[in-house]
Amino acid sequence: MSSVRVRVAEVADLDAVVVLERSVAEAPHWGAAEYAAIVASGDGGVRRCLFVADVEGRVIGFAVGKVIGAGTEGSAELESVAVDVAARRMGVGRALCGSVVKWCREVGSVVVELEVRAASAGAIALYEGLGFVGVGRRRGYYRDPVDDALLMRLELGNCGEGALPSSTGVC
């Protein structure tokens, strides 16, 4: 595979994001308007960012982050990650997650949280490899098929201002 580039999404990427989302069963299936709102979001109390991974202009993955507040109370959520089936296990998901976490940290978050299907062993391994730890479970949270949600968290508070990325690419 050619070199993968992760960048902030642009309006021109939205059609490809929606097509990819529809092809990935685990994706949230929000719809074009939701993604357009993320790309257009400003500096209100809740900030969101959509990152895409592309190879030679073709979107092969995306990730969405959301930040609520900043400073000692600043929390963030890794809302969604989707990678084209043909591009999995090549570091694309890791790069996308790393970009979201870096962005969350840059805008003042001290913690990043996420929910993942309990049956998604690959995704759980990815998140654990980035330093996320399990902190809870929501029974029967997902539908089609029914599955529990594992709650995971990554503490950013001890990264320190200007800290160099660790081997995880996060902090």
Automatic annotation (TrEMBL):
Record bears the keyword Transferase: yes
Domain N-acetyltransferase: 4-157
InterPro entries tied to this protein: Acyl_CoA_acyltransferase, Bact_Acetyltransf, GNAT_dom
Entry keyword set: Acyltransferase, Transferase
Keyword Acyltransferase listed: yes
GO molecular function ontology, one term from the record: acyltransferase activity, transferring groups other than amino-acyl groups
Name assigned to this protein: Ribosomal-protein-alanine N-acetyltransferase
UniProt source species: Edaphobacter aggregans
Top-level taxonomy: Bacteria, Pseudomonadati, Acidobacteriota, Terriglobia, Terriglobales
